[in-house]
Design a protein that fits this description.
Blueprint (H helix, E strand, L loop, with lengths): L3 H5 L8 H9 L2 H23 L2 E2 L10 H4 L1 H29 L11 H36 L6 H24 L12 H4 L1 H26 L2 H9 L4 H37 L6 H25 L8 E2 L12 H8 L6 H6 L18 H8 L31
Antiparallel strand pairs: 1-2
Pfam families: Ocular_alb
Protein name: G-protein coupled receptors family 1 profile domain-containing protein
GO molecular function, one term: dopamine binding
């Protein structure tokens, strides 16, 4: 899990009473087993989100259409950050499980402590990046509805540099000048509080900011529909309700996965002298399960692929072991050309025009730009699950 409390275990000592009592209650073997299984699910969910796909009719989408729309690019990077964070949890839990003396003897090897610090830093950094990408997705929805945009370089700066600064600030203060962070002489407000703030502040910002951004975005939806189509029928209302449901689930997943971490931090700082140990351990197991499963839940609510699409076999994967249901689609398509491979990169679609579209008149282009979240009025464009938006009649900056 991603918790400052777990990060403090890297410098735990058995020379004080708190550490001894804690290690008696904290059974590392079952906890690490739970963390390993949850991280494996997280890795699988993030990988499934990232894998390239072919369209439902078996044709490879030219120009990497699955990678080029703004929303889907953000989802891919969110999944990549989830993947790295889950991988960090897997490595840390496996090393702790292999070292059955971890934290139970005062002569733990420095190598084990350093490995703990490195993996904890990786987990802290990449989960903070997932918070940033989650916020960026909501921000971009709002900006698209206002017919505005921000360069993707700025998004990457926010998503990767801000977590790096927060992570370094929290962990360096925690682990320096020595690893004896649980000493009685340590002032917890100076040693621990910065790391807690660098962890929980981004979570709280997303919990508060995302619902506000989505509400602001939807305040313009009906007006844009009326402006672009001149009507607001049952079909349009179904689409709007489906989008509202999708963004509700996005917020719900984030709250589900990270609310236990907030509760854990509040209880620790308000009841430090008389900790409810049983309650704390229950919350820790919830964090161990729910934090890595964010990648699985995100795979369900964001869904960065079109309905009916199938995963495309990578060139390096043996065709003999590829599932038979997917081989049919592979035979129907020639291997991608060098141009396709070069285009199949994380671009933004509005920076690369799609040559397959029929040129639109200025009137139709303006109409489309005003409805970036809406599909066409055809029945096939309404997905009953989360209203996947994939109609070719739409502008390229659609969200899914």
């Amino acid at each position: 899990m991603a918790s400052p409390t777990i990060e403090s275990l890297c410098c735990i000592s058995t020379n004080n009473a708190f550490s001894k009592d804690f290690l008696i209650d904290f059974q590392t073997v079952p906890y690490n087993l739970v963390s390993i299984f949850a991280s494996l699910f997280g890795i699988a969910g993030a990988t499934y989100q990232i894998l390239p796909r072919t369209s439902g009719n078996g044709t490879v989408s030219r120009g990497g259409r699955f990678f080029r729309t703004r929303g889907r690019v953000i989802i891919k990077w969110l999944a990549a950050a989830d993947l790295m964070a889950s991988l960090g949890i897997l490595i840390r839990s496996a090393t702790w499980l292999a070292d059955d003396t971890f934290g139970s003897k005062p002569d733990d090897s420095p190598l084990g402590q350093y490995l703990c610090i490195i993996t904890s830093g990786i987990i802290h950094y990449f989960y903070t990046a997932t918070y940033c990408w989650t916020l960026i997705y909501a921000l971009d929805v709002k900006l698209v509805m206002q017919e505005r945009r921000i360069s993707h370089q700025i998004y990457h700066f926010i998503a990767w540099i801000v977590p790096l600064v927060l992570c370094l600030l929290g962990l360096l203060i925690l682990y320096l000048p020595d690893l004896n962070c649980h000493s009685q002489a340590v002032n917890p407000y100076l040693r621990f509080l910065p790391n807690y703030m660098s962890t929980f502040l981004p979570i709280v910002i997303v919990m508060i900011g995302n619902p506000i951004l989505y509400c602001l975005a939807f305040s313009r939806v009906e007006k844009q529909i009326m402006s672009a189509r001149g009507r607001f029928t049952h079909t349009e209302r179904r689409v709007v309700d489906g989008l509202r449901k999708k963004f509700f689930f996005i917020n719900g997943v984030f709250y589900l996965c990270w609310l236990p971490n907030i509760i854990n931090g509040i209880v620790l700082w308000t009841s430090w002298d008389n900790l409810p140990r049983t309650f704390i351990l229950v919350v820790w197991y919830l964090m161990a399960v729910l934090n890595p499963l964010q990648a699985v839940f995100n795979c369900m609510v964001y869904r960065a692929w079109d309905s009916g699409s199938v995963i495309r076999r990578p060139s390096w994967f043996p065709q003999l072991f590829w599932p038979r249901s997917m081989k049919t689609y592979q035979r129907m398509n020639p291997p991608p050309t060098a141009i396709d491979e070069s285009l199949d990169q994380p671009h933004y679609n509005d920076e690369l025009p799609d040559q397959t579209h029929v040129p639109r008149t200025p009137t139709s282009r303006v109409s489309s730009e005003r409805t970036p979240l809406l599909p066409s009025s055809s029945k096939d464009s309404v997905d009953e699950s989360f209203h996947e938006i994939d109609s070719d009649t739409l502008p390229v900056k659609t969200y899914s």
